Fold this protein.
Amino acid sequence: MKISIIFHSVCANNYLIAKIFYKNLKTKDQNVSLYRVADSDWTKQENTPSIAKENLKNMMNLSIATPAVMLESDLVVMGSPTYFGNVSAEIKAYMDSAAKYWIKAELAGKKLVAFTSVGNPQGGGDLCLQAIQTFGMYMGMTCVPVPTTLIPNENIHPFGIVHYSYSKYGEELDNKTQTAIEKFSKQILR
């Protein structure tokens, strides 16, 4: 299976999520690639903690995703920061660039998984995930839901993986997010 992980990250949180997906999906002997979307503002970030700067520097070495990446994939894992309950402008522009595939339903049947990083539970992360899934549904993709029972006694969004950063930028992800990605990765590949 050809798996492409495509993300936008400003503070490196989504980069860390993408790397954990990559690690977990790659261990299943899958053909997995990691891509970032174009963002000319990355180099202009101010007041970024040093650990986030290091992660962002590493992220810059990744290839930039083109719409053709989705066309060549069986499974797309897409992530965006949450801005006011929606995806970032960069992910929106990336999704819009795939409009040429809509007319002939060229992405139909491909699987789509969503993830996001958001400041706190009131930040609209679920809405961001829904925006990614709405894109997928209009493109004819099969959106893969996260079982709400993935982690017993934890609140899990069915629309995708949500990481609450609580204003921590590019630091190690919390155990709940890491565990959710590990368990969900196993289910994705069933």
Remarks:
- The chain has one domain: 2-188.
- The two ends are 12 Å apart (CA to CA).
- The first strand starts at residue 2 and ends at 7.
- The mean pLDDT is 92.
